[in-house]
Design goal:
With 510 residues, this protein is α+β, with helices and mostly antiparallel strands. The chain folds into 4 domains: 34-129, Roll (Flavocytochrome B2, Chain A, domain 1); 161-262, Immunoglobulin-like (Sandwich); 267-366, Elongation Factor Tu (Ef-tu), domain 3, CATH 2.40.30.10; 375-508, Nucleotide-binding domain of ferredoxin-NADP reductase (FNR) module (Rossmann fold, 3-Layer(aba) Sandwich), CATH 3.40.50. The chain has helices at residues 34-41, 59-64, 93-97, 105-112, 117-120, 349-355, 393-405, 427-436, 462-468, 485-497, and strands spanning 55-57, 66-67, 70-75, 78-81, 125-129, 161-166, 170-176, 187-192, 195-200, 205-213, 217-226, 231-238, 248-250, 256-259, 267-277, 282-288, 293-295, 303-309, 312-318, 320-321, 338-343, 362-366, 382-388, 411-418, 440-446, 456-457, 477-482, 505-508. The chain has a 7-stranded antiparallel β-sheet with strand order 19-18-22-15-16-21-20, with helices on both faces. Strands 8, 9, 10, 13, 14 and 17 form a 6-stranded antiparallel β-sheet that branches. It has a 6-stranded parallel β-sheet with strand order 26-25-24-23-27-28, with helices on both faces. The termini are close together. 37% of the residues are buried.
Length: 510
């Protein structure tokens, strides 16, 4: 389950999660799934109304097409007729109509910049926006010069910087992030055929080092983080001993500091190492990053999985977990491999594809994404986690982190909703963890319990939440929620009614 913007083209039952600010999905009509859209778009029908012609679209022309039955929008200079897609859009026509007749690039980037809209909407392409050439300033009306009497204020340079040093047998790149960094680090390193790509991810920003190295190095890369001073050191072994006169040649985007949303999503070619069944419809996938890659996904972040299905690029977000919850009470280094809990839906386009993969098959995986921040948890004394189904996934590593590194948190409680006993993920491990760690408690709630079930029954409601959340007078509480959209809406509304502020709540919505 994921803390990310809602996906633009998901299967009706996909496992997506969005941030609190993201929009919700709506129920799609039968026959309007992602796969139905793929089939419809490839049916040969004229989806633009232009009989295959591409035109140049002026701003005035774009503005004319702003109705439900005649809706054009512009994304990154290209205009699409999204009218045929209205009934297939999981966010509903209301969301599409926000960009009707205008440039919708900013709206698109706010919630699903990672989606390959060119692939999904290629049959809806109307043409390119016309280039507007602004008139030059008349000599008789010179541009006003800025005032020279006031000096610009001094602004502290917050950009990271880098340096390097070497020995005869090794070369070391050092990045100074100019801020404290998580103990897990927040960088992704790729070394392929002598090209080094290092992306540092402080908050919403992205700092890039991109170089063709001056000499040949071994593929093995080590990364050391000095957490308190914000220093990251990448070390490599030279294949041939000797001194380099430079670190290497700058490539595209080298030494740039941008908003992360402005940088294209980068994918790694990962290999499926194993697939382990967790219950009747859910599996643990273990993926291995390519040699020369060091990537650790911080708590609360997610990755995108991408596959080409029926000539269409399909992308889904998933939140990594640790290999085992039992390790949550142990101080052990994180695995370099990626572990994902994925529920297989009969009509899920990507989940069905993943289920068909065999050990050794490849899948494209992005680096860490997402806006979740641990900052609100710094002074929390009581952490409450409310999850439904595979909504457990973002909670799993949050539990481990809270146990190991957040000593101020006196109580960690998980309220876990499922339909039936067979649906409960990691039940044995959750119970073992609760028995081993006094600060952690877990309660289960079933909406369709069997006769032998003696635990809580029902759905999320005011009584359940009041019984679950105890608020001592000196408590500083924080609540995280993750489940289907309707579940999250009800839970968040009830929590607000109980007096929780927006700063005390976080929803990984779906």
């Amino acid at each position: 389950m994921l803390n990310i913007p809602t996906q633009s083209f998901p299967a009706p039952s996909s496992q997506q999660r969005v941030s609190q600010s993201g929009r919700n999905k709506v129920a799609l009509k039968p026959g309007h799934s992602l796969m139905d859209w793929i089939r419809f778009s490839k049916s040969g029908k004229d989806l633009t109304g232009l009989r295959g012609r591409l035109i140049e679209v002026t701003e005035e022309e774009l503005q004319k097409h702003n109705k439900r039955d005649d809706c054009w929008t512009c994304i990154r200079g290209m205009v699409y007729n999204v009218t045929p897609y209205m009934d297939y859009h999981p966010g509903g026509e209301e969301e599409l109509m926000k960009a009707a007749g205008i440039d919708g690039t900013d709206l698109f980037d706010q919630v699903h910049r990672w989606v390959n809209y060119e692939s999904m909407l290629k049959e809806c392409l109307v043409g390119r926006m016309a280039t507007v050439i602004k008139a030059a300033v008349s000599p008789s009306q010179p541009a006003l010069a800025p005032p020279t009497s006031l000096a610009p204020p001094t602004v502290k340079d917050s950009r990271p910087r880098y340096d390097w040093f070497q020995t005869d047998g090794s070369v070391h790149l050092v990045v100074y992030a100019k801020r404290k960094i998580p103990t897990s680090g927040f960088c992704v390193v790729n070394l392929v055929d002598g090209v080094l790509r290092l992306e540092v991810l402080p908050g919403k920003m992205s700092y890039m080092i991109h170089l063709r190295l001056a000499g040949e190095v071994e593929e093995a890369v080590t990364v050391h983080n000095a957490h308190s001073v914000g220093k990251i050191q990448v070390s490599m072994c030279k294949q041939v001993k000797g001194k380099w006169t430079s670190l290497g040649q700058s490539l595209e985007a080298h030494n740039t500091f941008l908003l992360k949303k402005d940088r294209a999503v980068y994918y790694h070619d990962c290999v499926l190492v194993s697939k382990t069944q967790m219950n009747h419809n859910t599996f643990m996938f273990r993926l291995q990053f390519p040699r020369g890659t060091v990537a650790y996904v911080p708590v609360g972040k997610h990755v995108y999985l991408k596959a080409q299905i029926q000539d269409t690029e399909v992308v889904r977000p998933y939140t990594p977990v640790d290999e085992s919850l039992a390790e949550a009470a142990q101080q052990s280094p994180p695995e370099s491999d990626l572990f994902l809990i994925i529920k297989i839906y009969p009509d899920g386009v990507l989940s069905s594809h993943l289920n068909s993969l065999n050990t050794g098959d490849h899948i494209s995986v992005s680096g860490p994404e997402g806006s979740f921040s641990l900052r609100p948890l710094r002074d929390v004394t009581h952490l409450y986690l409310i999850a439904a189904g595979t909504g457990l996934t973002p909670m799993a590593r949050l539990i481990r982190l809270a146990i190991l590194e957040m000593e101020t948190i006196r109580g960690i409680k998980l309220l876990f909703f499922n339909r039936q006993e067979k649906d409960i993920l990691w039940r044995c491990e959750l119970d073992k963890l609760a028995a081993a760690v006094q600060r952690f408690q877990v309660e289960y709630v079933l909406s369709e319990p069997g006769e032998s079930w003696d635990g809580r029954r029902g759905r999320v409601d005011e009584t359940l939440l009041r019984d679950f959340i105890q608020r001592p007078e000196d408590a500083r509480c924080h609540v995280c929620v993750c489940g289907p959209t309707a579940f999250n809406d009800v839970a968040m509304g009830l929590l607000r009614q109980q007096g929780f502020s927006e700063e005390q709540l976080y929803a990984f919505q779906g």
